[in-house]
Structure formats: structure tokens, C-alpha cells
Design goal:
Layout lengths: L5 E2 L8 E4 L5 H11 L6 E2 L2 E2 H7 L16 H4 L4 H4 L6 H6 L11 H5 L6 E5 L11 E2 L4 E2 L10
Antiparallel strand pairs: 1-6, 2-5, 3-4, 5-7
Helix pairs in contact: 1-2
């Protein structure tokens, strides 16, 4: 169900829309605690907590360590961190031998951003209706399961 009616002139079968997912409160709290960051510190117009919740992909996007570690520092990281085929920021934060004291300023420029999830509308919510707005339509999606890191 939509929170507000959708106008007939805006959607039809085949139209698409995007949803930006949010990170869970528990995952964000975990990252803040493990990285030793102040959740209310401002980065631009948002707090660290707000950025991690709505802007940063902490669970699915591969982390590029070279974005926030120098070539010199990279040589001292454990091999399992450097050579992981799919190291997420969550994995990095949870690693016992990560570097301490990484500033929260890396959030804005150096961490992967949440990407929109695109969906297609598969039905005409106005078929058989004389209404010019609708409160319901169907979407088509697929589920992708990633190998567990546990």
C-alpha cells in the first residue's frame, strides 16, 4: 500500500520506481560502537548515525580498503582483510585486528553508498476503475542471497 494515492497519469504497467533501503538500527549501532565514533557528530547536514543509516552500504557493497588506508598502512593489515573477496564495512568493523582511530570523516567520501533498488510495476492499478488515483499496485522483484560470512 502506498502512503498516499498515486495519480493515474504517473504510472502504468512497465513504469519503474526506485527504493533506497535503510540499514537497521542495530547494524548502525554496531558499526558506531566498533569504530568508536560519536553518533551525533555532524558530517555536513547529517549526523554519523543518519549517514550510516540512510547513505552508506555497510552490508552488501565490497569495501575498498585503499580508499581510507595508505599504501604503507595496507601492508600491515592482516591478510584475511586484504584478500577477502567480499569484505563489507560491517565485516571490517567486526574484525579484531582492524586499525583503531579511523576518523568518521571517511563516511562521506570513502565508504560505499547505498544504491537504489529498482522495481517495475506489473499491473495497471486503474483497470476497471473510474477513479483517477489508486492506493495499490504490484511490483516485480527478485531476491538475491549472498553467502553468509558466519
Amino acid at each position: 500500500m502506498t502512503e498516499k494515492p498515486v495519480s493515474k497519469d504517473l504510472i502504468e504497467p512497465g513504469s519503474s520506481f526506485s527504493i533506497y533501503p535503510l540499514n537497521s538500527e542495530s547494524d548502525v549501532s554496531f558499526i558506531i560502537e566498533k569504530m568508536g565514533w560519536e553518533e551525533k557528530a555532524l558530517i555536513g547536514n547529517k549526523t554519523v548515525r543518519e549517514m550510516l543509516t540512510s547513505d552508506i552500504d555497510i552490508l552488501s557493497e565490497k569495501l575498498k580498503l585503499s580508499k581510507f588506508h595508505s599504501e604503507y598502512d595496507l601492508q600491515f593489515l592482516p591478510d584475511d582483510l586484504k584478500n577477502s573477496p567480499h569484505l563489507t564495512f560491517y565485516d571490517y568493523a567486526n574484525h579484531p585486528k582492524k586499525y583503531e582511530g579511523i576518523p568518521y570523516s571517511i563516511i562521506e567520501d570513502d565508504l560505499p553508498k547505498i544504491k537504489p533498488r529498482h522495481f517495475s510495476i506489473s499491473n495497471d492499478p486503474f483497470i476497471g476503475s473510474k477513479l483517477s488515483t489508486a492506493n495499490e499496485f504490484r511490483i516485480v522483484f527478485t531476491v538475491h542471497r549472498f553467502k553468509s560470512h558466519e
